[in-house]
């Protein structure tokens, strides 16, 4: 009943549904979604406690803007599952889980400024609503709050310090990844290897840190917490590669932002890099005034070149490798859920 | 030989020199400057070790841009002195001192974006050189590096956590202060009380945290570390009030940025608030296209209203109160230097 999507099911889904992998979700996967939703709700409920609206109100509303608009809570849920998978209790690491979600939202606010994005989670981005200067502050404040919340976690002092050190190093990685991503937009010759390094820093590292922090704070042995880092790193990489796929195949009403936004922003995704290597040209890359029909033609070209399938298959192999790393853990409900979480990374619609 | 400026000397300096308080520095104060410069050099030498240039190079050059351009290193020097004043060793808390300087520089990079400032320390601001998006990242990365460096300090784990918790709370304060400062620019009715709260959060809190962290990491008793926080808070408040004075009275070639920049940015400083309360109007407040002669006239009006003297006297009283708090400390060279540092806050030219 609690099993995971088998690889062949997943593959056949992809083959059948083309670009709508997430459309057909088996019932067992829905249960896992429900369980994940429970964890997400735990995080949702905690956010107002850790980030209450106080003076100056405007700043706190700006900090809470995206947080309150929902989000999948994947990173904090992963942290809570990691704690349970190593025999700890989710309640004990809840502050750390909230901290991870705050960090994620801080990066969203600042990234949206850099990408000049208007919409996120179906609502105006923070800088659209409050202007760039105040959006910068709201992001900085969320980051500060995250460190404050993590430093107040209930655990061995040495475990807390290890977690803070890991998180801060990870945030340096995030910045490096974001910087590389921006540099890539001025270049036509970005290699797949460079793209992978960027994704590892920009996305995978925070998933990996979330998992490892859940384990560290729960007193896991070093090899176990490292395995959870590896799992998070691999699943996070698969997540980002698939995120680039979703940007192209999911309609705006589901995605909460414009379809093909990455193309308009000129992002060098794995799909674009692969298409370039096959001699495909995408004229509207980096053109903010592209029409809907131009976008539609670009997506069709990427589809027909096989570059979208290439990225989907890459994502799948990372997810499968990530799941295999979990064999070090004893069987538990949480372990099953982590496997399910990895599958969800490439079975989601947005 | 190592005494400090006496209050009456300071007062007479102000009375004699009007707006050039920093011009006449007694020899004993110069010695203290030398001692402070030693601490500053220790910090200077450590910065490249803690923030080496690595891949992606551009990001690290942007992070180091203002750090390498100098700066007074007041916060890290204060932290090192606090450690010595409670019987600790400066070398042991050097990572924490560097962390404080990184935090300060992170706030400078982001504040310069918000203030649309072109110059800092006589060189182009980070966003002028690299653009706003990359300046946001460089700031975020410096902040992350600061937490990473602090978490690697050599001290009791519980002391490190206490320091990180204090620093992160302080950074939330900084954001609140910066947010308030921005809100003030749209209002004509900012009260002196509101201004004081803003200054306490935006500037005094980080000085206070620097001092207390130096003490905490050196194992000081709670009342002693609290006294050092109080000292930093009071001296930091005096520092900021006097900073607003300096903005008006120091020529561009010494200041490293345009004279009267606060007026052009529309900042509600204590001087402006006091002048408003006396019915003085400053037409060029918030006007970026003010001419030099308009600026000169505005400064004369503020001078003649007594508002600049009002701010100078406020600054002095905070500095004096800050020094008096230090009586809890045993006599030491470091204690003398802390007293000298407080005096320096209002005896500097930039």
From TrEMBL, chains A, B:
Gene Ontology annotations of biological process type: isoprenoid biosynthetic process
Keyword annotations from UniProtKB, A to Z: Magnesium, Metal-binding, Transferase
Coiled coil region boundaries: none
Stretches that traverse the bilayer: none
Broad class of enzyme this protein falls into: transferase
Molecular function, one GO term: metal ion binding
UniProt cross-references to CDD domains, sorted A to Z: Trans_IPPS_HT
InterPro entries the record matches: Isoprenoid_synthase_dom_sf, Polyprenyl_synt, Polyprenyl_synt_CS
E.C. no: 2.5.1.1, 2.5.1.10, 2.5.1.29
Top-level taxonomic group: Archaea
Pfam families in the cross-refs: polyprenyl_synt
Cofactors that this protein relies on: Mg(2+)
Family as reported in the entry's similarity comment: Belongs to the FPP/GGPP synthase family.
Name assigned to this protein: Geranylgeranyl pyrophosphate synthase
Native organism: Candidatus Methanoperedens nitratireducens
């Amino acid at each position: 009943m609690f099993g995971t999507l088998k690889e062949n099911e997943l593959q056949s889904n992809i083959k059948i549904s083309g670009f709508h992998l997430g459309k057909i979700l088996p019932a067992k996967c829905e249960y896992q979604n429900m369980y994940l939703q429970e964890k997400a709700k735990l995080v949702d409920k905690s956010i107002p406690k850790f980030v209450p609206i106080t003076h100056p109100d405007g700043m706190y509303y700006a900090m809470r803007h995206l947080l309150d608009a929902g989000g999948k809570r994947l990173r904090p849920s992963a942290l809570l599952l990691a704690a349970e998978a190593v025999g700890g209790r989710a309640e004990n690491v809840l502050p750390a889980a909230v901290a991870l979600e705050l960090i994620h939202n801080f990066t969203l606010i600042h990234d949206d400024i850099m990408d000049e994005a208007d919409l996120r989670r179906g609502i105006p981005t923070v800088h659209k609503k409050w202007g760039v200067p105040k959006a910068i502050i709201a992001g900085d404040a969320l980051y500060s709050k995250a460190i404050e919340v993590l430093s107040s976690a209930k655990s061995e002092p040495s475990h807390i310090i290890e977690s803070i050190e890991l998180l801060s190093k990870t945030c340096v990685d995030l910045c490096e990844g974001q910087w590389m991503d921006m540099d890539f937009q001025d270049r036509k010759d970005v290699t797949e290897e460079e793209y992978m390094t960027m994704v590892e820093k920009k996305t995978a590292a925070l998933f990996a840190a979330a998992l490892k922090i859940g384990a560290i704070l729960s007193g896991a042995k070093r090899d176990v917490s490292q395995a959870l880092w590896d799992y998070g790193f691999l699943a996070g990489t698969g997540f980002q590669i698939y995120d680039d796929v979703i940007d192209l195949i999911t309609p705006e009403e589901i995605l909460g932002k414009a379809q093909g936004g990455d193309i308009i922003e000129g992002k060098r995704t794995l799909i674009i890099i692969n298409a370039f290597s096959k001699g495909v040209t995408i004229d509207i890359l980096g053109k903010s005034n592209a029409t809907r029909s131009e976008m539609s033609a670009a997506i069709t070209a990427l589809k027909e070149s096989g570059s979208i399938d290439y990225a989907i298959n890459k994502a799948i192999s990372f997810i499968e490798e990530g799941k295999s790393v979990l064999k070090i853990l004893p069987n538990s409900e949480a372990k099953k859920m982590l496997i399910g979480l990895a599958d969800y990374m490439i079975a989601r619609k947005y």
